User: What shape does this take?
Amino acid sequence: MKILSKKVENRQVLLTVEMEPAEVKEALDNSYARLVKKTSVPGFRKGKAPRAVLEQHIGKENLLEDALDYLLPKACADAIQEENIEAFTRPVIKLKQKKPIVFEAQVPLPPEVKLGDYRNIRIKPKQVKLSNNEVDAVIEELRHRHATFEPVERPVMVKDVVGFDISSSIGGKPFINEDGAQYQVLPDSPLPVPGFAEQLLGMKRDEKKEFKLKIPEDYPADLVAGKEALFKVKVMEIKEERLPEINDDLAKGAAPDIGTLDSLRGQITADLKKSTEDEARLEYEERVIDAVVYQSEVDFPPILVDMEVDRMISQELRHWQTAARSREEYLERLKKTTEAELQEKFRPYATQRVTKSLVLGEVVKAEKIEVGEADLVAEIGQMTENAGPKKEEQQKFLNSPQPREQVRQLLKTQKTIQRLVEIAKDSKKKIKKGKKEAK
Assistant: This one.
């Protein structure tokens, strides 16, 4: 075979291979020998039909296609070996012509990452501040959660709980129908559809009302999304929210094991501080990683992004299937979104993921980060700590080869990020002349 090798952008090699007639003849002979044994030809026992008869029965093109299915991958592998190419994953093969047989193979090369001076990156963590207003907001939320609702004789107002009978339809088909429904009137509520709460405002007990509302295009039930619904309601009862006083009784109702308002405020403050610190930590880690990526030069074959896009699409489809209320709703969602649209949606995020993953992988090598057996055992123990009766089953699963390696890689990534954070926070190290602190 004749091979033309050419390096192209994005860490790929383009091979153009022309097959010798003898190689094609051998592949056709092998294909005939393979097909004649499993093809029923009238007038002949299996395996006994002459080649000319078999070609007439199945078609010369089909015989050639079968031969190429075996010939091209082997010829491509031979060409890669002959050219001393380090293929990162399977090449993409395309037949260019049949006389003579010429094919092209796009061969992905291993990614190339050149880290910048990441050890000189300095980023100041943002100070975590907690205000009394945030604590007060949580207490106010607890008041609403423990509020009582008492009947009133006046028109419906915001935050009232309304008892009503409702019937509705879309295009003559039933939509939401219920007697004695309970509904809190909250402004801009999207439930059951946007605008419904506003229609109840000002209604009186025993009053009836009929109105139409358009179902949003992004409504979870795709079968009715974008359509108009006709609603009929009759108000049966109006209840007003009565908030409890902010005192020890509220604290006991919200958290019986705490008991006093001061203790409740202390617990809320501690919980808010922890969640705020966790958010700040994650945000800081992202800033550090972004700074390391920004300084790095990363070149990789597009197939890595394609593979990540495929993973993200699979996750999205599983999410749709789980969230759908019926098989019809899931199929309707699939109809409205093409694979090309999903690929376009996910490609930028997939590119970012691949880039970050490759850079972190290179930092692992540079920092010689390892995960010991004790770390692995401890992590699996922590992951299964609250598994209850299934703890032993989960531990057995996580200790099988593939999941165990995934846990190891997860720990390795966490250690790598922690190492980068330590570097970025280290104010004692001198910053080289000409370098500025990362923002």
